[in-house]
Every structure is written in structure tokens, then in C-alpha cells.
Amino acid sequence: MSKEIINLKGKDNCNIEIWFYLAVILISSSCKKLVETPPPTSNITEANVFSTDATAIATINNLYIGMNSVEHSNPIQGARSISLLTGISADEYTLFSGVTGIEFVHYYENALSGTLRTGSDKWAPLYNYVFKCNAAIEAFTSEKSNALTVNVKRQLLGEAQMLRAYFYFNLVNMFGEIPLCLVTDPQVNTSLARSSKDLVYQQIIADLQSAEENLSNDYLNGDLSSVTIERVRPTKWAAIALLARVYLYIEDWENAEAKATQIINYISLFGPLPSLNNVFLKNSREAIWQLQPTSIDFNTTEAQTLILPASGSNIYNNPVYLSDALLSSFEDDDERVVNGNWINSVTVSGTSYFYPYKYKVSNSPGVTDASGMTEYFMMLRLGEQYLIRAEARTQLNNIGGAQTDLNAIRNRAGLSNTSAFDRVSLLTAIMIERQHELFTEGAHRWFDLKRTGDVDSVMTSVTPLKSGGSTIWESYQQLYPIPESELQKAPNLTQNPGY
Asked: Which of 267, 287, 305, 353 has the least C-beta neighbours within 10 A?
């Protein structure tokens, strides 16, 4: 199998020509082992892209391949992922002193620049994904896809809706008010102004509600013809889990609790909560949705980036280690920060550097397909749902129920039941638990600081420490800048304040 599965890049905005999107189905037969999909025809026309189940499946598979890519433009995993860069923006990581790349230094020092594209570098990749989802949704809801098997068409439509919601969730939480691109027409997209966060969230919810209706109850194999144990394609449960998160963010406590409860109560598929070192294994009982790696000789790109070599860092591919602020915030008996569990360390010249160890397989020479892998990249998991429900229940004054959910996470980490007993103390305890349970995952820490209004109080002290006093925190820095190149192309688009 080729080590480079696919290398297709889009243009820098959401106005990519439709012909480019159609080219994504040119997936080599080398990825067949991983995605279990027959290679599509190479005779590319708009008429035949969605004329067979195999080629239609390939269009969506290409999105997953991109989300696993080793390319530095990948916003989902790796050394320049949203998770890592927002963790640098916040207080989860320390940047190695030898790292001088401005893309890292500017995030770390909270000194982003729209003109230098630091802070705006995930705008184009995410909108590129949005555009591909738009093209797929247009096709799956039109006569172009009439030849597809009904269940395949419905599942793929649900996956495209689920993915678009996921990409927009990240965009709105990084950039605030954003253009809501829902079509592939370049003239429409270049004329868009920014939509309010409320409108963006309404669209995210609408997509997820439709996805919940369209997606299968069961995990499906590569050709979508039968049930599998592989948890690598979204199901209705993935849509429900992301809906729970979205409802939490917009403070719709009743729906957040209800959606999280749907996941937690489905005990025949999810849970009981596995032990710490079984959480991130492929197809674990914790996994609601994972990405199956698509390159040989290693499992997740995340592990390659976060697991430090014996030298401590090679600067470019392993730029960070866990911050003292994060490590010192854990309780003494917390098993998540026992070496070999969710952290590990290397010692270089007498100095110990601690790094995330949720994923433990950095290199696995000779692994050429999924059967030889032990870890998949976690997109959505059960532990978050307990924390979502705990917070929603607290806001609804269900103190006992919130304590039970919080204790489920604490007890797995080897901790005693919470001592928090009322709404105020429980909300504080839940946010601390989110910091510890979800550290270095999916931008949770950065997004949590912003949605709870704690970002200014935390970052006012953190930013000068990270920058050596050269940068002070200003509240506008919680939003990332929009690329100057996009502002020039779209006359109705405006920059975030402060940039």
C-alpha cells in the first residue's frame, strides 16, 4: 500500500470549482484495505460520480482520508491540528524553547496575525471540507443520485450532514460570526457576509437533526451493505452525541441532558466506561465515532505528534509538552496522570518532559492495514456525554443526578466521589473535571474557557508567562483572525475586532 494515500488540495476558500470536488473520487486502490471500498471509475464526469454506490461512497471516504492525513494542512490531527493549536493558545501545552516557527509561537504567545495567516490557517481547510459536504448534499438531494441504492444514498447524505455540522462547530468556536456557505455556487459564496452565531448554530442543529434521521442505527462496513464492529463511520448515535454538545454550548440544558441520556442509556452498544488504558483502543466501548488511520507504519497521526522521542523534541513534528499548569492541577490520586496511563515522560539532560499518552502507538513498522492497528483516532466518546449531562443536570438543579454522572468519571480515574454539593460548587467541579478528562482532545479546553466566560481571567495570567512578558492578554484574542486573502475576495466579509 502506498504510504501517501491521497494528496488532493483545494483552493483557499469555500468557492472551489465543482470540477475539483469531483476529482476527489480518484482514490487509489491502495486505500482499499482501509476503507474496504472498490476503486471507483477514473472517467470523471458530473453525471457518473453519483451513478454507482462505489463512487458515491468514495466521495465521502475521501473526507475521512483527509482527516487522517499526515499533511500539515490537516485541521483534525497532527502537529497543526485544531486541538494542538488551541491547546497552545490556552494553558495545556508548553512550547519547546527551540521551536521558532511563527505558526507555533504566535498561537502560544497569543499574538496572532491575519496578515501572516497565524490563527487564520484553519479557515481554508475547514471551508474546503464544508464545500465538499455542500457538493455531496446537493447531489444526494437531487436527481443526480437517483441510481444509488436507497439505503446507501440516505446513509451518505447523513454522513455529509454530520460532517458539515462538525466543521461548522469548529469554525464558529474559533472565529465567531462566520459566512454560512450552504451551496457550491461561487457567486453566492463570495457575496456572503458573516452570519450571527445563533444562525450558525441553528444550521448545525438542523444538519444534525437530519443526520440523526438519515444515519444508520448500526455501524456499517465499507460498502454500507452490512453491520460491522468497526466504529469508523458515523451512525445516528454520533449525530446525537454531537447534538448533546451543541445544546450544551447554546445553554439548552433540557435537550443537552436528553441527548446525552440517549447515548448513556444505550448500554448494549456503549459502556460501561472502560478502564483508562482501554478508552482509546480501536472500537472501544467508549467510542461513539472514530477515524480509521489510512497510512502505513503507524496508527494515529495524533500519536506521532504528541508522543515525544527520546531526544524530547524534533521541534517541527513534536513541538510541545504538557504544561506545568495543567499537570499541577490534577488531584494527587488521579490515575490519569500516572506515567503510562494518560501521560508519559522522557528525561533529557536531567529535565523531565511530560506528554499526552492517551494514544500509545507512535510507530508500528510493517502495519499496512487496519487489522494490524490497535488504536483509532477518537472523534466522539462516552466520557464527554457524562460530563455534558452532569453540567446540564446541574443547571436544571438535579444535583443528585449531576453528582452521579460526575462520579462516574472521577471513579474511573481512581478518585473518590465529589464533595461538591450545590449548583455553584458542582459547576466548578465539572469544569475542572472536563479540563482533566478531556485534556488535549478536540479543542475542549479552549472552547470551554470561552463558552463559560472564564477565558479572560485565566489567560490574563497565562499569556504573560507563556510570552515571557512580551504579550499581554486582550479579550479580542479569544477569536482568531480571518485571513486577509479571504477579506480581499469577499467584499461583504469583515475582520474580527482587534486584528
From this structure: 267
